[in-house]
Amino acid sequence: MSVLREIVQSTRGRIVLGALVCYLAWQGWLLLAAPGKIAPGFNAGAQKVNILVTLPFQPERFHVIALQKYGRVSGTQDNAVEVRGVNQANLSAVARPYWVRRVEPLTNGG
Known about the structure:
This protein has 4 helices and 4 strands. By secondary structure, the chain is of the alpha+beta class. It folds into 2 domains: 2-34; 38-105, Alpha-Beta Plaits (2-Layer Sandwich), CATH 3.30.70. The protein has a 4-stranded antiparallel sheet with strand order 2-3-1-4. A hairpin with a 2-residue loop joins strand 2 (72-77) and strand 3 (80-87). Helix 1 (2-9) crosses helix 2. The longest helix has 23 residues, at 11-33. The radius of gyration is 19 Å and the shape is elongated.
């Protein structure tokens, strides 16, 4: 208990604790916001789906590589990335980054 008291009483300790609280709040917000970014209309019976991930800007190489963890990137359309063969269980993980605005079913060829 005295170690915790020393941490709270020191300026450096309060800064570290404050940064930790901010980080955990940010991660919590990302976790809670992800389901709201997923559009309805996915086939409930399908294990793998083709998706269109919309960003608030044109995707760069970093975003394409980050989305390749979940499926095969087949191209881009304006501010969106087409990803094919994504497990439905991973849709929340795809929607979690702050730079993802919407995840919806890919209609053309999907």
